Fold this protein.
Amino acid sequence: MDVSVIIVNYNTKSLLKDCIQSICSNTHGCSYEIIVVDNASSDGSVQMLKEEFPQIQVIASDTNLGFGKANNLGAKRAKGDYLFLLNSDTELFNDSIKGLWEYARTYPGKLGVVGGTLLQPNHAPNLSFGYFPSIKNELLYLWNRLRKNEHGFKRQDSPYKVDFVCGADMLIPKTVFQKLNGFDPAFFLYYEETDLQKRMEKLNLDRIILPSVQIIHREGGSFEKTGLTYARFMNSQQSYNHYMRKHFSGARYTLMKAFICFIRIQLLFKRDWSVSQRLNALKLCTQ
């Protein structure tokens, strides 16, 4: 088996159906399997899969495991030499899997992960990659926001290295995923792929964007698209705190923590949250 496509689903039945249909219609020239890990959906996703895609492996969890744990579970079932971790809100419109697989298996260096260029449904650029947390990159992010220039866009025709590939589409050699013991299960939502690829960096494994592969990411993008809700902020900040504790120490940790608290305080006062919510969010930032 060449590629195991692993999709984590949580109440996205319609999007999931479109995603799987796009895989089956556009994937040729390599052997693959599809594994869907359902995080206790209540929208009939599992029943739809059994009725319309009986060839697909379905792992139905009784609880919402989150992104990382669910992918780890799918990876244990995978038979492919490569794992293609794909969001349920994506859609392939060309032979993306073969393109990524062929690039990965002929890569001359030490490959950690390769992903494609993500597009919005209207084919405008979407966020395809990100930068590891640091004071420099946080400042760059703020500067790009002031210039209304998103932080994860890059117009380039040839493959290029990045800090981390967006978690919506990641082709990873299974041997690499196993060596890293997969995703850290302490991350429930957000920063799982950032942490995984930070650990790749420490092993000198490259993270690559392949522009010739283009994938629609229907609901991806910045917080501004769906709104930075209180719950989303808290989940994200909890994961950020865990990432910081793992990858920063000493004076670097103290300086970074102080800087991030300053940035987050500016953000909190711009949100239409209750006083108690703002206080809880501020408390979490300082932990």
